[in-house]
Amino acid sequence: MLYMLVSIKICLKGQPQWSEFFPDCGGSGQSPIDVDTSTAQYDPNLPPIKPLGYGQHGTEPFSLSNNGHTVVVSLPNWMGLAGLPYQFTAVQLHLHWGNGASIATGSEHTINGHSTPAELHIVHYNSELYENFSMAVTKRDGLAVLGVLMEVGEETNEGYGSIVNYLSRIRHAGQKAPIPAFDVQTLLPSDLHSYYRYNGSLTTPPCYQSVLWTVFAETVKISMPQLMKLDTVLYSTEEGSGQPSVLQDNFRATQPINQRPVFASFQRAGVKIYTKGEIAAIVIGCLCGCVGLAVVIRFVVKTIRSTSSWDVLPTVRPAPPSRSSSDS
Ligand SMILES: *[C@@H]1O[C@H](CO)[C@@H](O)[C@H](O)[C@H]1NC(C)=O
Ligand SMILES: *[C@@H]1O[C@H](CO)[C@@H](O)[C@H](O)[C@H]1NC(C)=O
After folding, report:
1. CB distance 132 to ligand 1 below 6 Å
2. Closest ligand 1 atom, residue 132 Cα
3. Per-residue pLDDT for 118 more than 90?
4. Is residue 159 within 8 Å of residue 224, measured between CB atoms?
């Protein structure tokens, strides 16, 4: 996730040098991480995430901006989250992405080593303990961020369209434009019960270790044209800059986990986690098997019945009346 920096240039390619200027970037509790689903600990006490007021966007436009590192939508302070250890108030959302040449990278978090092409972060501060974002951002329990891994699907995602359709208004670093307010909940996956939880940090300098992370297990899908807009429309440079540079690959490499626990709000289905496709195959396989078995049983029963009638019926048939007796 990105913290708004006014005067400091972050060179994303210079990630290993961040800690020379921002000591926290070299800390032992950094983000993003690779989530290893086989070692994540199931915690039955983790409740579903409850977005508060995400759908009540009102009529005032949202503000969309390009800060040179990402696209940011500022969020009204009546939006927040329940289902976390404290009350959290929404601040902003932003995205991370790759470079348009490949969809193999772009997300910050990875699951079992797999990246997705993009990731959404919705940033909140602990409004139960702190007066505002600035006060909370440096505190251990100051922030809560929702992470949503984004993949490519067939259909246009109208929710994400509310952001990517307006990127051309803020192509250059430092630009800002109003956009129609939209239902922020449409950016989330439908399953808010299943997520990974760990303590981590901001993913850009100053990398404060103040974030309680929630990374949803379910991904969302945007279309390929939508991803291409995200990957290619923005510049990290200001308008009129002599050397314009496209804003791409604004994700940080995964950081060492260093003994931090990662919790899962849901139980893994056995050792192997089946995909939806695999589950469908298993169900269809079972159904076909059952139908097949029923057909075989029916055939066998029918055969036995008809065989027995051929065998039995003639013997129980009354013997034809004897002609001789009737003649007599
Ligand atoms: C945040 O709250 C502190 C403490 O009340 C105050 O000094 C500071 O000006 C506030 N910052 C912003 C950005 O509102
Ligand atoms: C995060 O850190 C706090 C304070 O150190 C601790 O109480 C809490 O259990 C940790 N949460 C997770 C998910 O590890």
Report:
1. yes
2. 1
3. yes
4. no
SS3 per residue for 282-316: HHHHHHHHHHHHHHHHHHHHHHHHHHHHHHHHHHH
DSSP-based three-state secondary structure for 224 = helix
Ligand (nearest to CA of 135): 1
Average pLDDT over residues 136-154: 98
Catalytic residue among 57, 69, 94, 96: 69
Residue 208 in this model has a pLDDT that exceeds 60? yes
pTM assigned to the model:
0.81
User: Residues 211-225: what's their mean pLDDT?
Assistant: 98
What is the chain's mean pLDDT, rounded?
A: 88
- Residue 26 C-alpha from the chain's centroid: 27
- Is the Cβ–Cβ distance between 132 and 197 less than 8 Å? no
Instruction: Considering only residues 18 and 323, tell me which one the structure prediction assigns the higher pLDDT.
Output: 18
Give the CA-trace dihedral at 269, 270, 275, 277, to 10 degrees: -100
Pairing of strands 143-153, 62-66: unpaired
Give the dihedral of Cα atoms 219, 146, 11, 259; nearest 10 deg.
Answer: -90
Q: How far is the CA of 84 from the centre of ligand 2 (A)?
A: 12
Does the C-beta of 134 come closer than 6 Å to ligand 1? yes
Nearest residue (CA) to ligand 1, atom 9: 134
Nearest CA to ligand 2 atom 13: 198
Give the ligand with the smallest distance to the CA of 77. 1
At residue 103, does pLDDT exceed 80? yes
Q: Scanning the structure block, which residue is given the tokens 């508060």?
A: 52
Mean pLDDT throughout 116-136?
Answer: 98
Beta-strand runs (E) in 78-188: 80-82, 88-97, 110-111, 118-126, 143-153, 176-179
